[in-house]
Write a structure and sequence with these properties.
single chain; alpha+beta; Glutaredoxin; Glutathione S-transferase Yfyf (Class Pi), Chain A, domain 2; four-stranded mixed β-sheet; 10 helices; 4 strands; globular
Length: about 230
């Protein structure tokens, strides 16, 4: 039995979870926060990042490595084409979105989601880089209707983890959704993905945990003010 470790608020955790659900792989979940200093966690993911999995007596970290392992270990319900070049093109799209869209946009998350502040020069640099990279993404992605073509593939799990998180962050920081401005209708695409049971499960679990976290924070605030 595979154990998926991390938290439902993590976009990369949900990327792996969708793959497990799409492929019908039995798994359990273990709540692990990012940045843990616990030695057992660091032995599995040395930078304390989530997600990671426990499987076959070993551990594995980094979401793309994990989903590639799942694809190879559980070939039923494949999420990459059988042809090696076609499979590589799907993985190329995954890596492009994560390296050149999500990783760049991640610089905005502190201000967008956690009350931080990013300097004006850094914001301008990120904006220019994202604008360039989003134009490049359109040369690779197809959205016809899925990210890599006419069927759901690994690239769609990367898009699910990348496009809404970065799109909302840019709107909160710049007052403009840079992904939509680049001509990528990610909201319609995400709505289409939302019809899939795997995505519905992930969204429901994330909402449940986010609501529970907000309620706990509210209760703590109320108790401290009593």
């Amino acid at each position: 039995m595979i154990t998926l470790c991390g938290m439902s608020m993590s976009n990369y955790y949900n990327k792996v979870k969708i793959v497990l659900l799409e492929k019908g792989i039995p798994f359990t979940e273990e709540l692990v926060g990012t940045g843990s200093k616990d030695e057992s966690v660091l032995c599995a993911t040395p930078l304390g990042k989530v997600p990671f999995i426990r499987a076959e007596g070993q551990t594995l970290c980094e979401s793309q490595v994990i989903v590639d392992f799942l694809e190879a270990r559980y070939p039923e319900h494949p999420l990459v084409p059988a042809d090696p070049m076609a499979a590589a093109k799907v993985r190329e799209l995954c890596m492009f979105m994560e390296l050149y869209i999500e990783l760049v946009g991640r610089e905005l998350y502190g201000e967008a989601y956690f009350g931080g502040k990013l300097g004006d020069s850094s914001k301008e640099r990120v904006k220019k880089t994202l604008a360039r990279n989003l134009q490049a993404l359109q040369r690779l992605a197809r959205f016809a209707p899925f990210a890599a073509g006419d069927s759901f593939k690994l690239a769609d799990t990367a898009a699910f983890a990348t496009l809404p998180t970065v799109g909302l962050a840019t709107r909160l920081v710049y007052g403009e959704d840079l992904i939509a401005a680049a001509g990528i209708d990610w909201k319609s695409y995400l709505k289409q993905l939302g019809a899939r049971p795997s995505v519905q499960r992930v969204n429901a679990d994330r909402k449940r945990d986010t609501d529970a976290q907000a309620a706990a924070a509210a209760a703590k605030t109320a108790a401290s003010g009593a």
